[in-house]
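== Folding task for one protein ==

=== Format: two labelled lines per protein ===

==== Paired sequence and structure tokens ====
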Amino acid sequence: MSKPLFCETTESPHDSPSGAIHDAIFQVACESGLRVVVEKDCESVVSDFFCSEVSRCPSNIKNHIRRIWLQYDNEDSGHLFAALLDLWVALNGSGRALFRRLLLGAKSRLEPAGFEKLALLYTSNELRNSEYPVVTGSVLNRGVKGRLDLLTISEGEANTGLTERDPLQEAHECLEYSQIEQAREILENALLNDPLREAIHSDLLDIYKSTQDLSALNKMRNNLDDEANPFLGQWDELREQITEEFKR
């Protein structure tokens, strides 16, 4: 039998292997104000709210903890896993003691495989996104579709004559969940198909400005090298601005 990845020094051979020994961490949550009491049938609404808040402000650790406790109380192992993963991403190498306590506290309501994956992140000290487990429900893990799966039209549905969604709306939804690269790709493809749509220019330039991605800007600008395009002056202005920033 392999040795556990880690355990608390207070554990004894008589403690429950399910992890119930750690549940005391969660029992005091109400007194701290971090445990949300949710009325029956409102769990999904509150869960979506905390997902939105975590995506909007990943540095607000209190909302991460409230979200974790909510899924713990709901006994939803999948969304509990996603909430813990998003906390790990937000901590970005800091707060390891907090993450460890919460992970151990949630152990009894996580699937064994899920606990092992999160424990490996902790013990390996790896922060590379490519090594994060893929899980539906995560809103911070780059490259994970998460709740955006709900927005994807399947091939069967596409053949029923549904109207194609506005790329601006798709990009805005990606940005709400911190999927910046996906939003950029959507807008770039949309602009190639509709190079005279001002709103696409504006939103795409805002992304380049916020990410300072001069390489992507130049590549796209070359694809738009058309004297008849009235918005190219804005591209050149932003390119000069970012170039000057790099020189400082």
